[in-house]
Amino acid sequence: MFESLAEPKVDAILGLMAAFRADERTDKLDLGVGVYKDPAGKTPVMRAIKTAEARLLDEQDTKSYVSPGGSPAFCEAMIAQVFGAKANTSRIRAVQSVGGSGALRILADLLQETRPEARAWVSDPTWPNHIPLLGAAGLELKRYPYYDAAHSKVDFAAMMAALGEASSGDIVVLHGCCHNPTGADLDRAQWQDVVALLKERELFPLVDLAYQGFGIGLEEDAGPTRLLAEEMDEFVVAASCSKNLGLYRERVGAALIVARNTADATRAHGRLTTVVRANYSMPPDHGANTTERVLTDSALNEEWRSELESMRLRMVGLRKDFSEAMRKRSNSDRFDYISRQQGMFSRLPLDTAQIDRLREEFGIYMVGDGRINVAGLPENDMDRLADAICTVTGTA
Ligand code: LMR
Q1: Is 17 touching ligand 1 by the criterion CB < 6 Å?
Q2: Structure confidence by residue, pLDDT tens digits, 290-326
Q3: Which residue among the candidates 103, 109, 243, 254 is catalytic per the annotation?
Q4: How many angstroms does the Cα of residue 10 sit away from the middle of ligand 1?
Q5: Strands 29-30 and 371-373: what pairing?
Q6: What pLDDT does 395 receive?
Q7: Given this model, what pLDDT does residue 18 score?
Q8: How far is the CA of 1 from the centre of ligand 1 (A)?
């Protein structure tokens, strides 16, 4: 039976992870998959998480099922984190999910069921897994231009023109902050224009909020999502705890629904839990239980926020150091934009041959579109990286 299956397509990011692991060079450099790294190159378990896990181990007295929607206290804490502690939550509901990806998938299933004829517009470029993930839910995908690679900035006019062509009821996937893969975010005025367009054309936003706290700050990064909540009747958000709580492998996130009113919110939440039941029945507990403890205990929450903020500031510093090293080595300001962008990623203006050469000759791994994980930039070896880039671009 399986002989008829096509060979699987290698995922751009997972394939790179495997190639990096297999590379035996000791001076290899991983700028690929989006995981935070400390100066020693490790992805640490956050201190607040360690404390919460110890408490969980001590206090948990059953492994009985949670419900399809997950822990109500976790969901409430995630609503407060995304929409603010003072938000009016009467029309907002959340479901605990299997990572941010799980949230995207169950929301996509719900939207497909609600609007089978709707098309989902994703930015070009976007996180590569958006395409198979949303496509697998049966959504027809369209792309809107987003990035002006020649000038390393958002191509806002092209984005607005494309979304102006979307049909009423279409879904628009927006990166809530820290755009993946470009690091180029919309500013406040641009978000206001996008919201006005969404309202005028009756489009439905699906916000991917995977990097809250990695851009300008935990509260600030939720600003565009909160603006949508002020302005829009209905939308959904996929939030992740992989990055800001460092819980990658625990797979924890939340699917959030903002509805027109309480009755709609309750109905949509109920349907979403039936989507969960039909997919994997119920979510795992460990990561969400740990998160709930961190978000609801004020001392743990404070410790976590300060650790998250130092991670963010480290990435801001790395951006600055890298763009300065590139300015010095290349004798140009072509890479200055890196210090102005936000979050975990930026895209280098390199072609495929240059990216391949960096990997093969210098052991420097980045995604095939030039995306780098800023947290992987070598704090004490920026010049070696800058030299290698200038060598392959012929600017050394
Ligand atoms: C990334 O973009 O590198 C991360 O979101 C990890 C992944 O699953 O692709």
Answers
A1: no
A2: 999 999 999 999 999 999 999 999 999 999 999 999 9
A3: 243
A4: 14
A5: unpaired
A6: 85
A7: 95
A8: 32
Confidence of residue 396 (pLDDT cuts 50, 70, 90): low
- Given the residues 37, 121, 127, 254, the one annotated as active site: 127
In short, whether 13's Cβ falls inside 6 Å of ligand 1 is yes
> What's the Cα-to-Cα distance from 90 to each of 71, 86, 172, 310, 322, rounded to whole Å?
18, 12, 24, 34, 45
Ligand 1 contact via 174 beta carbon (within 6 Å): no
Please say if 127 is a catalytic residue.
Answer: yes
pLDDT digits (tens, 9 = 90+) for 100-147: 999 999 999 999 999 999 999 999 999 999 999 999 999 999 999 999
Q: Please say if 187 is a catalytic residue.
A: no
What share of residues in the chain are helix, strand, coil (percent, to 5)?
Answer: 50, 15, 40
pLDDT confidence bin for 95, thresholds 50/70/90: very high
* Cis bond upstream, residue 181 (ω within 30): yes
For residue 33 and ligand 1, the question of a CB distance below 6 A is answered with yes
- Tell me the H-state helices in the chain: 12-22, 47-59, 72-83, 99-114, 130-136, 156-163, 188-200, 218-221, 223-231, 262-279, 286-296, 298-330, 337-340, 352-362, 382-393
The verdict on the CB of residue 296 being under 6 Å from ligand 1 is: no
Tell me, in angstroms, the distance from the centre of ligand 1 to residue 377's CA.
17
Q: Model confidence over 40-76: pLDDT tens digits?
A: 999 999 999 999 999 999 999 999 999 999 999 999 9
